[in-house]
Amino acid sequence: MRENICEDFQETVREYLIRHQSILDIISKSQETNAYISRALTKAITQCGCIELNSKKINLPESSTISDIKDAYNSQLKGNLCSTCSEIIEQELGKNLFYIVALCNALELDLEDILLKENKKVKALGRFNCT
Ligand SMILES: [Zn+2]
């Protein structure tokens, strides 16, 4: 195993991506695994009940500062994932990451470079990063 987890994972995905090597398969599997993350989160709320969604419109005065806005918004979740839901969501995130990395590999992009550039961009833009 390499010390660089990004490089190591890219190599693992390169080795074990067998059937879905077409770029169309990769992007559709990425979308599919993303949907499974949403489904697992939904089931944690509606079937397990370990977390609750406390969603509502947030009304802020026009004079709100960026700091006010940051303080007003949150995940709108109440509670904590139980160990079962946490494990399921981690597995779904892992599957999604697999296809994100497969996309990097198909396009000959370096995951670590992407993470470093994005981290640098977010830090440079600070609160003005509206992604
Ligand atoms: Zn749960």
TrEMBL record:
Species the sequence originates in: Desulfonispora thiosulfatigenes DSM 11270
Domain of life: Bacteria
The protein's name in its UniProt record: DUF1573 domain-containing protein
